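Continuing the batch. This is chain 6 of the set; chains 1 through 5 are on the previous pages. Same settings as before, nothing changed between runs. Recording input and output for traceability.
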Amino acid sequence: MDKFFMVSIFGLLIAAHAAAGNMVLDNIAVLGELENLDIEEDDEVELFDMPSWTSDRGSKVLVNVDSFGAVGDGVADDTQMCQKSSGSDFIALTVGIVFFLPSKMRGTQPAPHDSQFSWFLQDVRYLINATRFQGPCADILVIQIDGTIVAPDEPKNWDPNLSRLWLDFSKLKRVLFQGSGVIDGSGSKWWAASCKKDKSNPCRGAPTALTIDSSSAVSVKGLTIQNSQQMNFVISRCQSVRISEVLVSAPGDSPNTDGIHISDSTNVILQDCKIGTGDDCISIVNGSSAIKMKRIYCGPGHGVSIGSLGKDNSTGIVTKVVLDTAFLRETTNGLRIKTWQGGSGYVHGVRFENVRMEDVANPIIIDQFYCDSPTACQNQTSAVKISEIMYRNITGTTKSSKAMKFACSDTVPCSSIVLSNVNLEKKDGTVETYCNSAQGFGYGFVHPSADCLSSQDNKDAELAEPITDDISSEDKYAELAEVITDDIIHTEL
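Output for chain 6:
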């Protein structure tokens, strides 16, 4: 439809419906903001083409950990042998490139005095204890893992100085992790000792399998991370990160085993990842912005979550998050935002779209009364503000009769929740939407009806659509979306 004609129609509608004019204008503004929401995929972390393994002058020293005594049988401790292969601080190099390579790509070993290093990991099992890998490095760092790295399986023997870490990489710039290898946290004894498995156990933190901290221009491709002691993969205090084709796996009953956890990071893109764990497949927490997730498979697990935020009266801020194309199967939650009472800050500018769900317990949920505590949480008036959240093209089946839940704070209500083309069904019953102190609107097909978002007293209320006319609200907002997009480029336990 001609853009000028569309603008004219909306001008007439607003004039004809003066009482609803302000609301229509507000909805148009919100829709425009959410349609404009996009995360630019810059080229900063398209780091380089994979360098050849040989060169005319032999500019890379190829270091095989086996030559330093690494056994690679999954039983002998190879930690010190790996450290010796690349210096006393392991990755704290001030020279060239470090490669972790499979033996089949070994090639010719150049002279030992050259200033660039390569590390071979063969297709075997290397037992590595908790270790920090720290930069900076002077040049591009390529880490190729095609074998299996395993953690010690006995919690009582873990280094108390590294109680929350297993493989920790920090202060790196322009680093590529890749390969077909496996990082295995050997977490079964840790899970058995969890207070979530047995309430008589003390609640304590456990290591994260892979941590990338305080780094920039990071790419991780093709690896498998499994059976972590607690969280599987943490991205913390990082900028410009690309994660692709990563498999994260842990049993559905393993406690606190978040798949990919993003904290205090910006410009992070996850794509083509398959994640099945005992906790959130993806969790995004305080200080994170410009996060984009594409083509994500999730299940089992607790779904894709923003939060939790605001614990212990803290401030939580998350902005500019896009999930585009995902399949969630048999998860306890689908698309979730969770905050604690008493917190402050905000979640603003989130778009979930093109998501298919199968037998998900809580497909769409905002919970401002989150309480993951062995004791009841006290009622508090302050809360993390949640606004401008869009759910578009969300379909599938739910195990719960309440397919959509917007449980928001009475003192800090949720606002500008937008639903478009949502269709959630229950195989053996009817579905409904629950609202508490939540405001928003829908366009297109929305099932179950979310009319309670438009109510002043919106606990299970039913009101008319914001605009009623000979032209349906569905057509109006759908065409409006086309107009808007014409000129744009489209921590917790």
